[in-house]
């Protein structure tokens, strides 16, 4: 197996006199990316995800730690000898070369004959949906088509790892969705190992087998999209994933209580006492009917609708519950009859409430 192993990798950047920003450091990263896996590094700008990508690529040398591919330690191996390919935010195509010459350029550097490399380039253009575009020049292509060429150029040399740094961030939303679908199909077809950098949650969730969430130079959590979303290991992860219903409190004597004591419920024996954060996913908060029998396995919250807005096929309601604003999702049918200023009783099953640390 040619898994990519990152072992306690660190990088420290010193502050320069001309820059007012504090010095950045990538804290020790320990990570294994399985052969054929699509792995995304997800985090805000400046969190260290591109630094980690550059370390893996060999474009930056680490201060400590090692990088292995299979049984080979490649920490000191130069970038051109790693057999990795990289796709950047910009396509970086050679403007004086045709599309097929751009795609075959890496093969040319490998001393592969012209006839063979052009045949491989044309075949790869078919895979990325650009059959018949080989004789064109980059300035005759749209931005999305240029990124397809860049992807074809990266894949044609059969890389051990494909590194992608926000490759679709410059495209408009429609093209981004189109390119995501293409990349997902290409990955399934070629089973190349992909390390993908993005700040876009939807992009990471759409594409990835697993995701690593980063913040301030630290790898905070690694897992499948569903697991990270439903069970964030910290308040910071939950917030970056767009979860807004996060309430600070304490666990004591088998119960969670918010700081203002307005929300309280029993917790399982496995939950440790001490400071904690309650995370409520908005889709798990439902409107309860007053005539329903209240279940001991559910938490009921009475509040007032502050805002109600349509959002991609459903409604998002902001509900004031004591000193807390909670977000809940309702279908079109459920939202019928709801109005701003209306009192509402919300219900959530206790086992759908997640408690996490700071």
From TrEMBL:
Give the record's keywords alphabetically. Answer: ATP-binding, Cell membrane, Ion transport, Iron, Iron transport, Membrane, Nucleotide-binding, Transport
Question: What are the recorded GO MF terms, alphabetically?
Answer: ATP binding
UniProt cross-references to SMART domains, sorted A to Z: AAA (SM00382)
Query: One of this protein's Pfam families, by short name?
Result: ABC_tran
Output the PROSITE patterns linked to this UniProt entry.
ABC_TRANSPORTER_1, ABC_TRANSPORTER_2
Residue ranges of domain ABC transporter in the record: 4-241
InterPro entries in UniProt: AAA+_ATPase, ABC_SmlMolc_Importer, ABC_transporter-like_ATP-bd, ABC_transporter-like_CS, ABC_transpr_FbpC, Mo/tungstate-bd_C_term_dom, P-loop_NTPase
**PANTHER family from the UniProt entry:** SPERMIDINE/PUTRESCINE IMPORT ATP-BINDING PROTEIN POTA, SPERMIDINE_PUTRESCINE IMPORT ATP-BINDING PROTEIN POTA
Q: Name the chain's protein.
A: ABC transporter ATP-binding protein
Which organism is this protein's natural source? Planococcus notacanthi
């Amino acid at each position: 197996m040619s898994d990519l192993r990152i072992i306690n990798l660190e990088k420290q950047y010193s502050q320069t006199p001309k820059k007012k920003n504090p010095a950045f450091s990538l804290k020790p990263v320990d990570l294994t990316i399985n052969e054929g896996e699509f792995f995304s590094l997800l985090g805000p700008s400046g969190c260290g995800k591109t630094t980690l990508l550059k370390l893996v690529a060999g474009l930056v040398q680490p201060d400590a730690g090692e990088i292995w591919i299979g049984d080979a330690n490649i920490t000191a191996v130069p970038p051109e000898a790693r057999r990795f390919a990289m796709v950047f935010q910009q396509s970086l195509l050679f403007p004086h070369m045709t599309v097929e010459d751009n795609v075959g350029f890496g093969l040319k550097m490998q001393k592969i004959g012209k006839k063979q490399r052009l045949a491989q380039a044309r075949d790869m253009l078919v895979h990325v949906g650009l059959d018949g575009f080989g004789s064109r020049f980059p300035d005759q292509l749209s931005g999305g088509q240029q990124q397809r060429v860049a992807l074809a150029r990266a894949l044609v040399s059969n890389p051990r790892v494909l590194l992608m740094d926000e490759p679709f961030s410059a495209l408009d939303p429609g093209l981004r969705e189109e390119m995501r679908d293409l990349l997902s199909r290409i990955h399934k077809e070629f089973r190349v190992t992909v390390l993908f950098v993005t700040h876009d949650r939807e992009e990471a969730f759409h594409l990835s087998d697993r995701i690593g969430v980063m913040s301030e130079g630290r790898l905070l959590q690694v897992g499948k999209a569903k697991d990270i979303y439903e069970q964030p290991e910290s308040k910071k992860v939950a917030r970056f994933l767009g979860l807004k219903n996060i309430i600070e409190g304490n666990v004591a004597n088998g119960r969670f209580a918010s700081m203002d004591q307005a929300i309280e419920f029993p917790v399982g024996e496995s939950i440790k006492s001490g400071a904690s954060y309650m995370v409520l996913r908005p889709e798990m908060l439902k409107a309860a009917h007053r005539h329903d029998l209240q279940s001991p396995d559910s938490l009921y919250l009475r509040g007032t609708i502050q805002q109600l807005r349509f959002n991609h096929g459903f409604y998002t309601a902001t509900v004031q519950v004591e000193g807390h604003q909670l977000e809940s999702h309702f279908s079109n049918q459920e939202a019928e009859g709801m109005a701003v200023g209306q009192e509402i009783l919300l219900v959530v099953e206790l086992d759908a409430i997640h408690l996490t640390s700071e």
